[in-house]
Here is the input.
Amino acid sequence: MLKTRVIPSLLLKGRGLVKGQQFKNHRYVGDPINAVQIFNKKLVDELLFLDISATSQECGPNYELLKDIASEAFMPFAYGGGVENCKQVEKLFNIGVEKVIINSAVFNNPQFITDASNIAGSQSIVISVDVKRNMIGSHTVYSNNGLKKTNRKPVEYAKQLEDLGAGEIVLCSINNEGTAKGYDLELLYEVSREVGIPVVASGGAGCLNDFKDAINIGKVSAVAAGNMFIFQGKLNAVLPSYPSPKELQDLFRESNNG
Here is the structure.
């Protein structure tokens, strides 16, 4: 297993997989079970699922679908979407989810992080932090799938999350998400250097060198990507893919040597 985690990030809407850009214009791209089976064959170490409809529709996690995913996945996976209380957290762990991702519920009840961490340990509780950069370059945290401005700054917010018991942060640039233009390296570095828990880069990866930049410049612990692992070629054909172990080993060997 690689020291640096490279995680396919898959968006769920209902029972389907979708992809979009800058948290908008989502389109159906396939069946999640089929994607899991392909990633099994690609020897992926970890998956991340985010249900973008669970919070907006106030329907909570789709446990039936997640049970199906857990029965097919050879690798551990994290799930986020509509998680608002500890009963849901317990149920997710019981059906095979290894890490639970929380986002919007934190703003109404920060104590939820501490309570959830007490169930299975802080390493199993991940907070998804979605950030938008404004016209003058200032970063602000957003909630509810990027629709609600919180007026929180990423660094102070990340520190609070760590103090409350979060074990990991998935840090996503809304501006870069789905663009394949690379991660927001300034954002990654600002947060990663101020917290002691792992930070996972998300939003914008378009090539393997973007992973290297996130590690070397952004100083993150892991990288996540969506479109890069779903679309192939100039016509964006839907074909789930993943770099070979050798490609990733060579990439991060260069990073370590650099």
Q: What stands out?
A: Residues 5-257 form a domain with the TIM Barrel fold (CATH 3.20.20.70). The two ends are 21 Å apart (CA to CA).
